[in-house]
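Q: Please design a sequence for this.
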């Protein structure tokens, strides 16, 4: 059991308007912090009032982006309990990201204790309304004060939480996607499989370009040949071609191994669908579309669970997918996953971890 020191806030914040939570706008009363120093390891786990940090401007994170993060949610069930969805997968991914960024490993049990402790402390911030949840953001920054380029010898691991609204308050609407052919987000040997802020910094320009043209997200192609499909925005991507579900394989190391991706694959297989994890060329998708065999396309991630694509624009060819409506498979997997997450369906796969 992680030993956590509690310093509770003397005054609590006013709660936000539960009907207008949006995403990542309101933060709770407390945060979790734990420090790392060479020779001491991770130490001084504490839950303290949510507060600003005081950091030397020469801290390594500001200059060389030695930073990682995670994202998961706590859900309120119909009987008022609070639960997590496969947090062990996020923690496992955290340590893979840490390894890639030369950040010291964390004890997985300690991280789970920390997540449960901050969520339990902030239980009144877990919203009740349909489709809402408490978003949990663990992250680590390098805090050595020096400009030499080396892995830091000191770090801060923090967890902040924020109530977030229903992603689909107005129903599931398919989105317009633009195929990005100029910029890439990841290459083999790079950090595509790791959840690091730097990946986001360099993908902003593609996102901005797509938004300026009236699209909501970018479809990323591989960084070498600009030919194979990687991801959509900050989500994993699935295509249904002639009844078979296809998603890019993880083995090149340029795709983020999403917990939602993995869960969708397992649920679809359980439902009896054929799922292929393999390389998927954009040309194959175009070909399938021309032959009337592109049934569905959707992104997956913790924030939206499933986000169907209504329009896919390659720059010189526009594909309207499934009449710009959510497809049958996307709908089924969305219902199954959200049913488990919000405790409305039985957790047959043992994915739920209760908090309180
Ligand atoms: C976090 C993330 C995903 C989705 O992962 P989940 O664990 O399903 O939330 C997909 N792609 C990228 C680039 C991500 O950062």
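A: Design:
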């Amino acid at each position: 059991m992680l030993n956590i020191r509690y310093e509770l806030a003397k005054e609590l914040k006013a709660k936000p308007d539960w009907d207008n939570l949006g995403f990542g706008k309101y933060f709770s009363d407390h945060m979790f912090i734990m420090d790392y120093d060479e020779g001491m390891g991770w130490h001084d786990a504490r839950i303290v009032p949510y507060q600003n940090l005081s950091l030397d401007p020469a801290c390594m994170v500001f200059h060389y982006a030695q930073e990682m993060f995670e994202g998961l949610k706590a859900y309120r069930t119909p009987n008022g309990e609070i639960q997590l969805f496969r947090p062990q997968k996020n923690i496992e991914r955290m340590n893979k990201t840490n390894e890639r960024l030369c950040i010291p490993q964390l004890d997985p049990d300690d991280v789970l204790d920390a997540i449960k402790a901050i969520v339990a402390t902030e239980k009144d911030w877990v919203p009740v309304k349909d489709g809402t949840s408490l978003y949990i953001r663990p992250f680590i920054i390098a805090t050595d004060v020096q400009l030499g380029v080396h892995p830091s010898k000191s770090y801060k691991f923090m967890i902040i939480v924020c109530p977030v609204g229903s992603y689909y308050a107005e129903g599931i609407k398919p989105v317009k996607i633009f195929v990005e052919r100029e910029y890439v987000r990841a290459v083999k040997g790079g950090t595509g499989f790791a959840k690091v802020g730097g990946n986001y910094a360099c993908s902003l320009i593609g996102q901005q370009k797509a938004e300026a043209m009236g699209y909501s997200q970018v479809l990323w192609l591989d960084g070498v040949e600009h030919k194979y499909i990687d991801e959509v925005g900050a989500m994993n991507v699935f295509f249904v071609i002639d009844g078979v579900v296809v998603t890019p394989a993880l083995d090149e190391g340029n795709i983020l191994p999403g917990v939602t991706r993995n869960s969708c694959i397992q649920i679809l297989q359980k439902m009896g669908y054929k799922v292929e994890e393999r390389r998927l060329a954009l040309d194959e998708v175009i070909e399938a579309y021309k032959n009337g065999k592109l049934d569905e396309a959707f992104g997956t991630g913790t924030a939206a669970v499933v986000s169907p694509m209504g329009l896919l624009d390659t720059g010189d060819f526009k594909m309207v997918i499934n009449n710009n409506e959510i497809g049958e498979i996307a709908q089924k997997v969305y219902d199954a996953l959200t049913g488990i997450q919000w405790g409305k369906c039985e957790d047959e796969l043992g994915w739920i971890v209760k908090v309180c």
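Q: Thanks. Anything notable?
A: The chain has two domains: 5-164, 175-341. Residues 5-164 form a domain with the D-amino Acid Aminotransferase; Chain A, domain 1 fold (CATH 3.30.470.10).
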